[in-house]
Each structure stands twice: as C-alpha cells, then as structure tokens.
Amino acid sequence: MPTYLELSDILAAKDRIAGTAVRTPLVKLDPARLAAAGFVVPADVPEIWLKDESKQPIGSFKLRGAYNTVAQLPPAALQRGVITYSSGNHAQGVAYAARALGSKAVIVMPDNAPKVKIAATEALGAEIVFVGSASSDRKMKAEELEAAHGYSMIPPYDHPSIIAGQATCGVEILEQLAELTGEAPDDATLVLSPVSGGGLLSGIATGIKLASEAAGHAAPLVYGTEPELAADSEESFRTKTLVEWPAAKTTRTLCDGLRTQSLGVLNFEHILKFVDNIITVNEDDIRSALKVYLKATDIVAEPSGAITLAAALYRSEVLPKAKRIVVVVSGGNLEPSLKETLENEAGAAHV
After folding, report:
1. How far apart are alpha carbons 33 and 40 in whole angstroms?
2. Which of the following is catalytic: 62, 104, 117, 139?
3. Residues 65, 89: Cα–Cα separation, whole Å
C-alpha cells in the first residue's frame, strides 16, 4: 500500500517555507478588461480566479517544494551540495533554495531549455550540466553525478517533501477563496492545475482534499490539465496504469515545463486518490490563453502556466458545471521572443 501525505505534513511545509516562498495573489479575471481587449466570453463560462504563482521570487511554484526539501537536509549534506534535473523552473527553485541555505547547486538541464530559464538559473549561482532533450537523460545524468560526488538529490516531483511543498498552494487557494468570497469553497468550485511529472497536481489536490475534510465541508473538484501533444498523464489516469511517452512526442508541445515523459510513482498514487479528472488542451488554445494574459490581465504567464486558463475558456464541454473556476498560473517565465510574437500577432485570441 502506498504511503500518502497527511495534512500535518503540508502544514509543516507551510510553516517551513514561510518567509521564502510567498503567499501568491488570487485575483478574479475581469470580464470588462476582456471585453475592452476584444475578447467575448460565452455566457456559460463561470467566474474565473487566477492563482498567480508567477509572483514567486523565481517566477514559478517550484520554489515551494524545492525549499521545503532542501531545508530539511542535515548540515553535512548541505555542505556537500545538492543536485537536480529540470527543464527550468525546478532548476531555479533548487538553485534559489541552495543559495539561501548556503549550499552548492548542480542542475542537469536539457539542451533545448528556454534561454530565459537557463540565464535565471545561472544568475542564482548554480552549476549547469547540459544533456539531450529527453527527461530520462536528465535523470540518468543527475544520478550519475549524485553517486560520483555525494550530492543530495532534490527530485523535481517524485518525493513526499516536494509534494508537501506544492500542496501549500492548494491550502492557500482554500484560504483565499474564503477570504475573498465570504464562502467556504466546496464542490461548486473547480480547481485546474497543470500536470507534467505530477508534483503540483498531486500536491494541490492532496492539500485541498485533506484541508477540506479537516474543515468538515465538501472539497472543490480538482482537475489536471495537460497538452494533447504530451498526454501521458491523461492516459495514465484514464487507464489507471502508469505509462511513459517517448521524448520525441512530449517535446512537440509549446509548454516546455510539461514535457515530462511520465508521472512520478508517488505523484501517480496521490493523483489516483485525490484528483477528480485530467483533461487535455490543444496548442492553439494554449497560445490563445497566452494572449488573454498579455492583453487582458496584469499577469505574464508562460505556456505551461497558461494551459489552465485555456482549459477553463475552451474546454467547457468536458468540465463539470461550477460556480467558479480557479486556474493555477504555475509560472511566468515566458521567453521574451515568444512574448513579442504574441503581442504583435494581429487579431484577438478567440474566447
């Protein structure tokens, strides 16, 4: 039987990361701003709230789990250094945590990682080792260096401390919805999270379900959102069997942070227990959601962070009826060249 996180693990992580990771804003998508920017929202779309993890010091949610994990290492391990494998945002999370705690960070990154994420990781003082584009290549090289140098591995998603750190985002969503709406969020609320290796989705779902149970009310529904071109998680959830897609398929998506070839084992167990569904989104809709952020909000989202809004706006036929939808903007590390292209493209995005 798998060992699941308890609410006490998540609340301990919440205390541990306080002062390093921030309590990010939860803001309502403004229909008036959408209209002013040329977007017409169908009448059947419920109110949409944006959980803006781009406001973390590294521009993404990854700091939560990374700091929660590195902060629990003994002094001797910190002295030897930490290592991870990542396409960018987790790399920055580990580099930031290591610097804050006085440790060396070594990051194995794919050679096709966005330049903005490479530069940000280097700026945090990390040593970067490049490998091919497959997530399996990154993991293998990191394990090789871990064994050779005695570094402590900080996995990007498949670890209880990573899941507990990401789960703090789910607990915050519940707290903020109650504060902003005056209502305890229940199953009339739908929360949409991106999914790749499963750290964020498994954490958010576990945090929301356990905290709601402890408060004695029905929990919001939690759905994962994934690109059609990298839909290994959707297939795993649907078949209840952990599957892996080849890198040649998952690297086709614009969402560089969602190209992982398989869910983590522990993440998958939590997803099966706590997640209500996983749906997919096509590339055109992801691109359109990026334009909505740029032209009708104050948030800059990267493709992986925009996929949830794409699901809320364009996949209503597969979503349950809800009073409100919370979309998690997982990160805002958008490549400047892509940002410029989107801003200059003629015409409004479809809504």
Report:
1. 10
2. 62
3. 11
Angle at the Cα of 226 from the Cα atoms of 339 and 281, rounded to 5 degrees: 70
pLDDT tens profile 52-99: 999 999 999 999 999 999 999 999 999 999 999 987 889 999 999 999
Convert the pLDDT of each residue in 252-279 to its tens digit: 999 988 888 899 999 999 999 999 999 9
Q: What angle do CA 136, 13, 185 make, to 5 degrees?
A: 100
189 forms beta bridges with 324
User: Is 62 considered catalytic here?
Assistant: yes
Rounded CA-CA distance 350/326 in Å is: 20
Pairing of strands 277-281, 221-227: parallel
Q: If you write DSSP's letter for every residue of 98-162 in order, what string do you get?
A: HHHTT--EEEEEETTS-HHHHHHHHHTT-EEEEE-S-HHHHHHHHHHHHHHHTPEE--SSSSHHH
Do the Cβ atoms of 171 and 328 come closer than 8 Å?
no
Q: Reply yes or no on whether 196 is catalytic.
A: no
Q: Sketch out the chain's domains with CATH numbers.
A: 7-60+160-343 (3.40.50.1100), 73-153 (3.40.50.1100)
Q: Are strands 26-28 and 47-52 parallel, antiparallel or unpaired?
A: antiparallel
pTM assigned to the model? 0.94
Q: Which residue has the tokens 């400047």?
A: 336
Tell me how many helices (H) and strands (E) the chain has.
Answer: 15, 10
Token match 């104050």: residue? 298
